[in-house]
Write a structure and sequence with these properties.
alpha/beta; Rossmann fold; seven-stranded parallel beta sheet; 7 helices; binds nicotinamide-adenine-dinucleotide; SDR_fam; oxidoreductase; KR_dom
Length: 270
């Protein structure tokens, strides 16, 4: 995949929501860089199994672990299972996420909660479990300069408001301060915490906005780079953020959006 398979050698990772889309790519890329990967899934064991088998066929190490990240007991059980399998943990990628759109005045409290629970409370619960582990374990000499790495998969909507999706935008805006506050708290303990904010990446979550050529053309108006992103664009960045190559990077959001956050409407002078 273009980089050394020793970059994450000996490291163990959990990727949430990894049975599809961006999470799947992150799991594959971390494994290709040498990490053993727990492929978390909520409800699709067959897809998770296929990804585990593909990683193993490519010479990597992986295991599928079921858990709904919005449930505290399930998160604890997932970490216990990963620890039992791998013996230790070095990397958490908080990727699982969902949308449940509605105009603001019609959005039910249940619709609001369903997104906040998965996109904000889930990453909080997982990061907390990971941090507790990293603090206990400390730096593993010869494996990484950090005691652990936490990566949130946020969104350009941590800064771009999104009408009709206030639950999603609020969850991603919340991730920004969750990530930064944890980064500030844990940096002295050599735990690095950062986010990746994808722009439009071709996955199921936004299929209707890129599958038909007319829809894709509309979407491309907002992407100065002139293409819709691929999950691999995010997978590669996750490897870098998880590796010692980014050892001095703390509390940062890396926008991978083909320039979507550059206010492309102003390119002609506004
Ligand atoms: P996706 O729908 O393909 O994948 C989301 C994954 O999360 C699925 O595998 C789903 O099963 C899992 N998931 C949902 N609820 C879960 C739960 N309670 N517990 C465990 N897993 C759960 O979409 P994607 O585009 O791959 O999204 C991945 C992440 O990237 C999300 O956080 C999303 O908000 C973010 N993101 C995506 C885009 C994009 O353009 N695709 C842009 C910005 C941010």
């Amino acid at each position: 995949m273009g980089y050394s398979d020793t970059l994450l050698k000996g490291q163990k990772a959990i990727v949430t929501g990894a049975s599809a889309g961006i999470g799947e790519a992150i799991a594959r890329h971390l494994a290709a860089a040498g990490a053993a990967v727990a492929v978390n899934y909520r409800s699709d064991p067959d897809s998770a199994k296929k990804i585990v088998e593909a990683i193993q066929a490519a010479g990597g190490e992986a295991v599928a672990i079921q858990a709904d990240v919005s449930k505290e007991d399930a998160v604890k059980a997932m970490f216990a299972q990963a620890l039992e399998t791998f013996g230790t943990l070095d990397i958490l990628v908080n990727n699982a996420g969902r949308q449940n759109d509605a105009p603001f005045t019609e959005m039910t409290a249940e619709q609001w909660r369903s997104v906040i629970d998965v996109n904000l409370t889930g990453p909080f619960l997982c990061a907390q479990e990971a941090a507790r582990l990293f603090l206990k374990q400390g730096v593993r000499e010869g494996v990484s300069r950090a005691a652990g790495k936490i990566i949130f998969i946020s969104s350009v909507h941590e800064v771009i408001p999104w009408a009709g999706r206030v639950n999603y935008a609020a969850s991603k805006g919340g991730i920004e301060q969750l990530m930064k506050s944890i980064a500030q708290e844990l940096a002295p303990s050599k735990i690095r915490v950062n986010s990746i904010a994808p722009g439009a990446i071709k996955t199921d979550i936004n299929r209707e906005s890129w599958e038909k050529p007319e829809a894709e053309a509309e979407l491309l108006k907002r992407i100065p780079a002139g293409r819709v992103g691929e999950s691999d664009d995010i997978g590669k960045a996750a490897v870098w953020l998880a590796s010692d190559e980014s050892d001095y990077v703390n509390g940062t959001t890396l926008f991978i959006d083909g320039g979507m956050t550059l206010y492309p409407e102003f390119a002609d002078g506004g």
